[in-house]
Amino acid sequence: MTESPIALITGGAQGIGFACAEAIKDNGARIVLADINEAGVNAAAEKLGDGTVALVCDLADPQQIEAMFEQIESDIGFVSILVNNAGIARPGDFLETTPEQFMEVINVNLLGTFVALQRAAKSMVANKIPGSIVNMSSINAHVAIPTIASYCASKGGVMQLTKSSSLALAPHGIRVNAVGPGSIDTDMLAGVNANPDAMKMVMSRTPLQRIGSPREIGDVVAFLTSDKASYITGETIYVDGGRLGMNYTC
Questions:
Q1: Is residue 1 part of a domain?
Q2: Interatomic CA distance for residues 27 and 228, integer angstroms
Q3: pLDDT for 167-188, tens place per residue?
Q4: Of 16, 149, 15, 22, which is closest to residue 92 (Cα–Cα)?
Q5: Residue 91 falls in which region: left (phi positive, over 0), alpha (psi -120 to 50) or beta
Q6: In whole angstroms, how far apart are CA 78 and each of 4, 21, 52, 115, 121?
Q7: Number of domains in the chain
Q8: Which of 62, 96, 242, 249 could serve as a FRET partner for 42 with CA atoms 20 to 30 Å apart?
Q9: In sequence order, which residues have a C-beta less than 8 Å from that of residue 159 and are 6 or more positions away?
Q10: Does the predicted model carry a pTM greater than 0.90?
Q11: Domain that holds residue 211
C-alpha cells in the first residue's frame, strides 16, 4: 500500500493556513503544521488530529527552516507537498517606513518562501519525488495599497518566484503554483469586518459582494497539490470574488 504523502503547511496555526491543512488532509495527506505561534500551532494540530505534527519555526530565519526540514525528514519522511503560507503585514505610512520595517515583511513573506521552497525541492529532486509546492501570493501582487508597500512588494516577488522556480523544477516533475487571495475572513481582515465604512469599500470593489472564507482558499490549494492539477505549473490562481477584473466602482 502506498504511504500517504507528507504535506507541510507553514503559518498553519490559524486562518488560511489551517484551512489549507484541513483541505489537504481531506485528500489523504499526513499533515505537518509549522508556525511561530507555539500555543496556536499545537492547538491546531490537536484539532486536526490523526497524527498531525506541530513544529515551531520562524520563517524569517533560514537556519530554523533548515532545522525544521531536517526534523521532519528524520522523524517522519520527505515532504512531497509544501504550502508556503506564512506571511505578515506591517501597515504604516510609506514615508515613515524604515528599511528595517520593510525587510521584516520581506524576510518572512519572500525570503522565507524562497528558502522553504528551495529546501523542499532539494529533497524532492534527490529522492525523485514528483512534488507539488503552492506559494501564498495575493491580489496585492497586482493591485497596491499605499500603507502596505512592503507586503505588496513581497507578494509581487512571490508571484515571480513561483514562475521562476516552476521553470527550474519542471524537468524534475515538481510543480510550483501560487494562490492569490482577495478579501478573506481572517484575523488580518478583522479591523475591516468591524468597520461598516471599510466593509462598504471592500464590497464596492468585490463583484461577488461578499468576503471569502479561508476554506475557499484551502480548497483551491488542495486542488493544486492534487493529481487533478497535474498539468498546471507556474500559475497564480486569484481567488478574489472577481476583484482583479473590475476597472470601476459603482
A1: no
A2: 11
A3: 999 999 999 999 999 999 988 7
A4: 149
A5: beta
A6: 11, 17, 15, 16, 10
A7: 1
A8: 62
A9: 137, 141, 178, 180, 236
A10: yes
A11: 6-245
Per-residue cell: 52: 498531525
Catalytic-residue membership of 151: yes
DSSP class per residue in 147-170? GGHHHHHHHHHHHHHHHHHHHHHG
Q: Are 55 and 79 in contact (CB under 8 A)?
A: no
* Residue 53 in domain: yes
What pLDDT is stored for residue 248 in this prediction?
A: 66
| Residue 249, C-alpha cell as written in the block | 466602482
Q: Is the dihedral of CA 116, 111, 157, 161 positive or negative?
A: negative
Whether 151 maps to a domain, the answer reads yes
In the structure grid, which three cell numbers stand for residue 200, read together?
462598504
Domain assignment present for residue 250? The answer is no
Among 151, 231, 238, 248, the one annotated catalytic: 151
Q: Domain of 64: which CATH number?
A: 3.40.50.720
